Amino acid sequence: MQAVSRSAEFLLTLAAECDSECPVALPCSKALIAGQSGMKPETLPWTFNRLRDHSVQTDAAVAHIEDMKRLRDLVSCSLT
Fold this sequence. Notes:
Elements: H1 2-14, E1 22-25, H2 30-36, H3 43-51, E2 56-58, E3 62-65, H4 68-79
Antiparallel strand pairs: 1-3, 2-3
């Protein structure tokens, strides 16, 4: 679950200005995102799939956050 939480934190950082539904452009390759999040590149697609359960849909270069509160709750629960 740590990898999922780190991916969620990364997306929340990119979407800091959003309060509800928000499309987020991924600023670099998924391999670089994985490296910045401290995980192997092959783990990132798995974490993005897991984030579907937390109202995040991803395509090639955009993550669509459908519920910011739900994503924030995921991160805050993993910190406790």
